[in-house]
Amino acid sequence: MLDASREKNEREIQIPHSERTNVEMLINEKIQYIAQNASVKDVKKNVKNQIVELVKLVSENGLEVSQLAAVLNILFVGKLECVDIKRLVKILLPRANVPNFLIIKVLSNLGNKGLNYNVQALLLRWIIIVYNVIEDHSQLIKFYGVIFHYMEYDTLRPFLCHILYLMTRREHLIDEYNFFNRIDLRTRFGPEPHLLGLLTLYKDFFPNLVTIRIPPIKNATFKCPDVEWFQLFNQIQRKWNYNIMNNPITRSSSFKPTAKRRKLDHVEIPKACTFNATRNSITLEEIMNIESLASSIDKIDLPSQLASVLENRMLQHIVVCNPEKVTIARISYWLEQCLMELVYWNDNTAETKARLNSLLMKLVALTEFMKELLPVIQEFLVKYIQTWDGIEHQEAIFKLLSFLRPEPFEQLSEKFFTPLQNLHEKLSSSWKARLIRCYTDLFTHWILFQENNFGENNNEIEKSENSFLNLSIKGDYSRTIQGFIHHVNQVSIISLESTNDDLEVQHAIFSAFEAIANLQMNYNWNRVVIPSSSIVYRAFFSSSGMSLSRICGIILQYKEAFDKNPQQNVSLHCRSYINYFNSFVMDICNCLWRNRPFNKTDKNSKGFQLDDDIIRKLQETCNEDWTSCYSLTHLPSFAALSKSCIQDLEESTPNIKRRLTLPATQFSLKDISTAGGLQISFNDYRVHFLNVLYKLGFVGIHDFLYQSLTSLSKLKNKP
Amino acid sequence: MSKRKDDQKKRKRSVRSNEMEEGQREITAELDSDIFINKTFLLYRCTPFYKFEHIKFTQYGKELHNFITGQMLNRIPLVCDNGEENDFISEGKVVELFISKIKLSNWNGTNGMPIGVEIKFKPKGPAKEQIFHLIFLPSIVSRDFAPENSPFNHYPVILIKAPQRLANIAIEWFETRFDCRICRYRLESSHLKKFVEELANISFTCDDFIQTKPFELTFTIPDISEIKNIKLRISLVDIKRLYNRSKEQSDSQQSGIAERIDEHFFECLRIKLSSLILSKISNHAALVAGEGKLQIFAGLLSPKFTVSLLNQLVMFTR
User: Fold this and answer.
1) Where are the domains of chain A?
2) Residue A165 and which of A82, A579, A614, B147 are 20 to 30 A apart at CA?
3) Which secondary-structure segment (H or E) carries B112?
4) 3-state SS record for A440-469
5) In this complex, do B176 and A336 lie within 8 Å of one another by their Cβ atoms?
6) B78 vs A180: CB contact, 8 Å cut-off?
7) CA angle at residue A45 from A39 to A48, to 5 degrees?
8) B66 and A305 in contact by Cβ < 8 A?
9) Is residue B183 within 8 angstroms of chain A, CB to CB?
10) How far is it, in rounded angstroms, from Cα A220 to Cα A198?
11) Which residues of B touch A186 (CB under 8 A)?
């Protein structure tokens, strides 16, 4: 594989052939001259000059394997001055992979008294620099003991530790006796950073055997020993098309410093370490990326403390893929105690609260990843909600609640919805909106449980795949959802009334009903639950255009859901229920477009269920404006926009003699037209106004009117 | 005392012989129930142990010994140690560590017997060797898994008599070795009231209870900085009298002794003890503190009382 790439690379090399041959010749000549004359005193100066020239040449072109071997031979003969030897070591810049025999040559010269220890250390640095391009690392393992032997040498030790750090695999440490001897390094040489780095690696492999405390090491202990040299080496490799991607010369693993300082405002989560791993074990600590996780997910030894799942994404993947009962139990026991300790067994201090919050946020992250609530968390929530003040840890609690596992509605109501309802009465409008948003999220998550299966008489989830403990949801799942929608309906009505139609609450309610309508449209849900008339009417008469437009959009979605399966609707819903829904469409159209507000004589129209007396009084108040008083151009939610729309039209029309001062009606526009003002019919204006609204984002009202009124769709095509 | 030393020697011999025979065999030696007596234990709660095997006490003992040594000496003991280790002692040295079941008659052993860890420890410096204990009390009922198939063993309560540093190291080892979580076990006021009941009832059965040390109940007053505690000292005779009188007055009412004491003080002194937090109780037999402390005193009642008290501790964790 490597040879093939080398051939290819050589073909693609950018250096012209003639020039290359010339360079090779020069390099070979100079190496040969230095080798032959290293010990000749008379030509010492010449040798030095040759070395300078060689350094220059090699720094640009690097060396072939044979040239590397030749330079190494010169070094080991040791006839040159130390400074020259160091120069030559620095030009050991391989163009391709480094064969093992060169590394072995260096290692076998360790302890060579003829070779200065500083030079030996420099050669070890060279091994570290070229480590990534050594041809066969497995051969080097045989020198593990040899390398250890020279650990006694202070000058060499840091680099030997670095090489061992790069070389060590689990199986190298299995011989306990040697292993213990290695561990004893620290006691013999003291806490040197490179020794601690190596020990940390050993401890990660065998935490049960390496029981000593290793102080935390800031940053990586093993950094590139010579950045400039490494860059030059990389440059040469790249020049000869052996792109090594600028890898730092360190272990690319997930090993991290072990010791963590205990933080008072954080729960201490166990580290994912595997005790009692065997020679053949694959542990989580060795999994470096998602690819290696995928390839060995079924062989990985789980860490000794599974609560580490809270902070370890790789472990989260494993647990999701294989949620065994025992695995879930191990996590659950830990979580249960930790939660109980923080909430019930400790004084409610600021520190405890901070720790609880930190744990809850971790649970949220875990749950969001797993898309399912661990049963133990749901059990905790049952207890916690009963005494919750609604404020503490609000963000986390609402997020966890939005992942509640479906149960029969009555049970959920008793455990969660009723206590939340009690809080709802006491807390702010913003909290009420947050609760409804939480319900919307819950609803959305429930839909995902049963994706698209609602239409297949499969209303009970027996064993959801990927469910922790294969929790079965007893009872009619559809009924739970139906009961829940009714509950959301009720909460929405109370919220609107108690907050005086707060905008944030309205927004939350419409989002909820948009999600519910979506279920009916896209998930074959056939038990349509329409929003209460109270919600529809309040939105219609709201002073916010957003409310009116969105409720129109929601009604349109419901209408489409009904239209989608008319036969089923007849069988599942009584006629009066459908007529009741139709009354929304009729009443809104009558007001907005037909100028027949509160009409009760049209088929299905109910006049917003107002008493005749009230309608009469409204009529008296509005006088002659009565018919248009609740129309698109007059309703408080759109009146200002309509006025601004008229003004824009007038601005864009040249030679206007008179401007419209009254709201746009059939008569006012006719009058102004004859008086030399804006020339537009009322119908054309309304179509134009609807287009303007559409562009402003009021899609709901635009689509609703176009879909509901045949006359309108004939007037203009949708923009 | 000499008997105790003899026992320890015997036990040591027994363990060694077992080690020589086969590491996988269960140790037959047991710790005696007297390890509970006259020691102030700190109480801890513990979640179920995962893959804890009773036949591996020797192995666990070695592992824990190594772990503590590693943590305390900053080094791994080598097989070829040559006596230089004193140079590395930073905090102290484990001389001997021993794990075994505890012989406790009357203990309902459905889920096994309590397990004890005895650590003979030599602190750095001239201080003498000391013996410390960790005692694991098994659960009364098994949870979630059928006992025969369960990979879990539950010891919900741990009693620890050891310096905090040593205790923390041992706790860390148990947590990592058996995937459990250990935290302090604080007793609620209601728990202590039950203990009052327990202590009084047992004391009444004793013939010479008249001569026993009076009951001392310590109440903590929440939210008042001027007064932190109120201590009530009542003789067992008075408690008995109170108990009997109350019983005569209303046979139908089944309130406990603690409630009767509350009522009496309210009637006489208008002090509403039920609004205060009962934080400590003590008498001649035991001292139990809400912060999670237990001391059982030597006495005639002890063997019977010990099991009952320990059972209560386990029950309260449920």
Assistant:
1) 1-135+226-246, 404-592, 636-713
2) A82
3) none
4) HHHHHHHHHHCCCCHHHCCCCCCCCCCCHH
5) no
6) yes
7) 80
8) no
9) yes
10) 11
11) 74-75
In angstroms, rounded to a whole number, what is the distance separating the alpha carbons of residues A208 and B177?
Answer: 9
**Interface residue B168 vs chain A (CB under 8 A):** no
C-alpha–C-alpha distance, residues A120 and A375, integer Å: 61
Which residues does chain B have within 8 Å of residue A307's beta carbon, measured at their own beta carbons?
A: 179, 181
Q: Which residues contact A498 (CB under 8 A, 6 or more apart)?
A: A425, A429, A432
pLDDT, tens digit (0-9, with 9 covering 90-100), for A431-455: 999 999 999 999 988 887 665 444 4
What are the distances in angstroms from CA B100 to CA A119, B12, B305? 58, 12, 22
Helix axes A533-540 and A575-592, enclosed angle (nearest 10) = 0
Whether the predicted model's global pTM rises above the 0.80 cut: no
Counting every residue written for chain A, the total comes to 719
Query: Is the separation of the CB atoms in A436 and A512 below 8 Å?
Result: yes
- Collect the ranges in chain B with pLDDT lower than 50: 1-2, 12-27, 75-88
Tokens standing for residue A264: 């008072």
Q: Is B143 on the interface with A (CB under 8 A)?
A: no
Q: In sequence order, which residues have a C-beta less than 8 Å from that of residue B116 and are 6 or more positions away?
A: B31, B35, B99, B100, B101, B102, B133, B134, B135, B136
Q: Which of A212, A346, A352 to mutate to test the interface with B (most CBs of B within 10 A)?
A: A212
From the list A183, A275, A338, which residue is nearest B181 (CB)? Answer: A338
A651-704 pLDDT, tens per residue? Answer: 888 888 888 888 888 888 888 888 888 888 888 899 999 999 999 999 999 999
Cross-chain CB nearest to B76 (options A180, A304, A330): A180
* Tokens 């917003």 -> residue: A608
pLDDT band at residue A17, thresholds of 50, 70 and 90?
low
Whether A187 sits inside 8 A of B88 (CB atoms) is yes
